[in-house]
Design goal:
Length: 204
């Protein structure tokens, strides 16, 4: 029997209930607790009890994305990549393109979800292997969300397509690029995306 959402007068919920409410796996909820993203305590039997208020706060932040469209000044780009060197390389290379880009970089799926909950990016670039919530769960949590209908999700990973398939499938319409980061292809994509956005704005 599937766990039901806790009643509003219950201060705590189980790991299973929190996972269902947030739309993530049990492992992700456990990582959220360990990293302090969710407030929780353990019973004498070793079961986690998560503060319902902290779950509701995460949901509220994520839900606010429906009321906050992407910036109209150029393209807003969110990159989820935990490698510090690649984070710097992304920023340095993309800023050198001379395109009107607003770039934000985070190191894990948790932070990416929180950013999307505050403002919807035009483009989301996702690495698959990250601590806490990985790229697989991040893509699955966001793909198909009507609020992100105009957001392009792109995966850039060092994993081969065979390894990606073994670890878990991704939506077929999400493009997958290998590493080293294919900046030439990304440059062409961003130029086309920016032109498309300008045309849409002029047509309003």
């Amino acid at each position: 029997m599937e766990p039901t959402a806790p009643e509003s007068n219950e201060p705590y919920c189980s790991t299973s209930q929190a996972a269902k409410l947030l739309g993530v796996s049990l492992g992700t909820v456990q990582n959220m607790v360990e990293e302090g993203v969710l407030d929780a305590w353990k019973t004498s039997g070793g079961h986690r009890r998560i503060k319902r208020e902290s779950v509701m706060e995460l949901l509220a932040k994520r839900g606010s994305a429906q009321a906050t469209p992407a910036s109209t000044d150029g393209l807003s780009v969110l990159i989820a990549e935990d490698d510090g060197f690649l984070q710097k390389l992304y920023r340095k290379t993309m800023e050198a393109w001379g395109l009107p880009l607003s770039i934000e970089i985070v190191g894990n799926g948790f932070d990416a979800l929180m950013v999307v909950g505050q403002r919807i990016p035009d483009v989301l670039i996702v690495d698959l292997i990250m601590p806490g919530m990985d790229g697989y769960e991040l893509v699955r949590a966001l793909h198909g969300n009507p609020a992100l209908a105009h957001t392009d999700i792109i995966v850039v990973s060092s994993l081969s397509r065979e390894d990606i398939a073994k670890r878990g499938s991704l939506p077929p319409d999400v493009p997958i690029y290998g590493k080293p980061v294919p900046f030439h292809e990304l440059h062409g994509f961003f130029r086309a995306k920016n032109t498309q956005k300008l045309r849409l704005q002029r047509g309003r």
